[in-house]
């Protein structure tokens, strides 16, 4: 029978499973992390765990947090196993398991977020980090500027002591620290957003100004918002992953699988100190934007390029998608010919070499990453990772037929029906709006581009609009595989 994962049983786990060698009872908190999904536990928590395994960062342990009702179930699962997580590395050469113990608590989920505010107001907390997805920052889709009109933001402005959002809770905690004479904490975004720290700063200061201009000025002067780039493919946990951890002899209700690649590039702007993450393999660099542009435009953008045709054709996983020669050729041709010219080299990596690396990573048969997970929230992911490249191509007069095709494939997918007639279930916060636009675009392609909150002035560019219309018309007339063959062979 699998051995239940908990502190008391760490010594009894199967041979070969790496377990914490540090005294978890002696750890003290230094970080609150909001958004305890799989990615954080496979990535940032692992870097800290590795420092702790070396006898360092013992006063930087993580307190988990969430602001959504369904975060309570995750809290219960993790609390029942002393906040331990089994990480299973899925390498084509063989799998391995490691138990990560850098998280030591999880703030109760409650309306008004009082417990979270109190935890962040504790001066022992020096970093508040977030993984709340690209779409969770209350940004206008077209301008990517802070949008104060959202009902949740308006609620937080009217009720600053009982906010709904993570950002409202952070502002409330900073207000308490200021009132108590304590310093600010570092606000650290770990989401896939261009300039994620800068965007987090815009949201926090924008919200704070609506509540208290003096508080906003204090935050601007005392808090810091480092930019960072995060990279590791981490599938969602489902029956397959739960079965895998059980087969390894571990009773873990919240295991995480991940690929055998991990990267974290961080700008060194921490107002209250930080762990020495570089000693665990992170890169501390002033070139975050270049690393970030390569990753967002080629990995995240590449994911969107291949997910739409895969969904239309009914392919379930990303590695199966890459086994489809036409989709693989689509990815490589767009990445090498239309994206790479708008991406800078970074130390040790050219855009062309990165395409080869992504080809290998996406094709890993051990990673059962689903097309549905990758395609989720395309309204945020296309606007954040693909449309910026199209804008650069338009400005430079560079090739963009493949990029236009990627948008036509997204529009075709958003009709909600595959080529075999089966239904694509809703997979975006604004799915109903996307479906309406996609259905209208079947007869009038420009109707898709008239979603100005996504495309802005791109809808007026004659070259892009023509390429998009030709691609979408061909998709409906000739079918996906025929169009892919004509573009990429």
From TrEMBL:
Positions the record marks as coiled coil are none
- Going by the entry's taxonomy, the superkingdom of the source organism is recorded as Bacteria
Q: What keywords were assigned to this record?
A: Oxidoreductase
Domain (Mannitol dehydrogenase C-terminal): residue spans on this chain: 288-476
Where would I find the Mannitol dehydrogenase N-terminal domain in this sequence? 30-278
| InterPro entries referenced in this protein's UniProt entry, alphabetically | 6-PGluconate_DH-like_C_sf, 6PGD_dom2, Mannitol_DH, Mannitol_DH/Oxidoreductase, Mannitol_DH_C, Mannitol_DH_N, NAD(P)-bd_dom_sf
Q: What name does this protein carry?
A: Mannitol dehydrogenase family protein
Tell me the organism: Ponticoccus alexandrii
Lineage summary: Bacteria, Pseudomonadati, Pseudomonadota, Alphaproteobacteria, Rhodobacterales
């Amino acid at each position: 029978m699998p051995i239940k994962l908990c502190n008391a049983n760490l010594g009894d786990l199967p041979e070969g499973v790496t377990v914490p060698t540090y005294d978890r009872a002696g750890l003290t908190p230094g970080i609150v992390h909001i958004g305890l999904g799989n990615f954080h536990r496979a990535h940032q928590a692992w870097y800290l765990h590795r420092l702790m395994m070396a006898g360092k960062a013992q006063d930087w342990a993580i307190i988990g947090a969430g602001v959504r009702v369904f975060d309570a179930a995750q809290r219960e699962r993790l609390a029942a196993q002393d906040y331990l997580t089994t990480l299973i590395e899925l390498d084509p050469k063989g799998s391995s398991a490691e138990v990560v113990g850098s998280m030591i608590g999880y703030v109760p989920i409650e309306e008004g977020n009082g417990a979270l505010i109190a935890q962040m107001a504790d001066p022992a907390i020096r970093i508040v980090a977030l993984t709340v997805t690209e779409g969770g920052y209350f940004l206008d889709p077209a301008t990517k500027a802070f949008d104060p009109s959202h009902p949740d933001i308006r609620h937080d402005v009217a009720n600053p002591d009982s906010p709904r959002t993570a950002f409202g809770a952070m502002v409330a905690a900073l207000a308490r620290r200021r009132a108590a004479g304590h310093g600010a904490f570092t606000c650290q975004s770990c989401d896939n957003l261009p300039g994620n720290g800068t965007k987090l700063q815009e949201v926090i200061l924008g919200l704070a100004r609506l509540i208290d201009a003096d508080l906003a000025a204090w935050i601007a002067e005392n808090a810091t918002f480092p930019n960072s780039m995060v990279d590791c493919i981490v599938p969602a946990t489902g029956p397959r992953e739960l079965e895998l951890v059980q087969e390894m002899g571990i009773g873990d209700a919240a295991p995480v699988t991940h690929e055998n690649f991990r990267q974290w590039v961080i700008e060194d702007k921490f107002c209250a100190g930080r762990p020495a993450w570089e000693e665990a393999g992170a890169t501390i660099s002033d070139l975050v934007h270049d690393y970030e542009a390569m990753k967002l435009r080629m990995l995240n953008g590449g994911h969107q390029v291949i997910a739409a045709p895969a969904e239309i054709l009914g392919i379930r996983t990303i590695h199966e998608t890459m086994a489809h020669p036409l989709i693989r050729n689509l990815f490589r041709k767009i990445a090498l010919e239309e994206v790479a010219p708008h991406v800078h080299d970074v130390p040790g990596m050219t855009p062309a070499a990165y395409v080869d690396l992504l080809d290998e990573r996406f094709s890993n048969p051990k990673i059962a990453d689903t097309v549905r997970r990758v395609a989720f929230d395309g309204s945020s992911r296309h606007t954040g990772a693909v449309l910026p490249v199209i804008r650069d191509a338009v400005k430079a007069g560079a090739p963009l037929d493949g990029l236009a095709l990627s948008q036509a494939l997204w529009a075709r997918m958003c009709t909600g029906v595959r080529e075999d007639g089966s239904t694509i279930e809703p997979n975006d916060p604004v799915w109903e709006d996307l479906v309406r636009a996609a259905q209208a675009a079947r007869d009038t392609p420009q109707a898709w581009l008239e979603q100005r909150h996504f495309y802005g002035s791109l809808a007026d560019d004659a070259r892009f609009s023509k390429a998009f219309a030709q691609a979408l018309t061909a998709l409906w007339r000739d079918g996906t595989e025929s169009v892919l063959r004509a573009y990429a062979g």
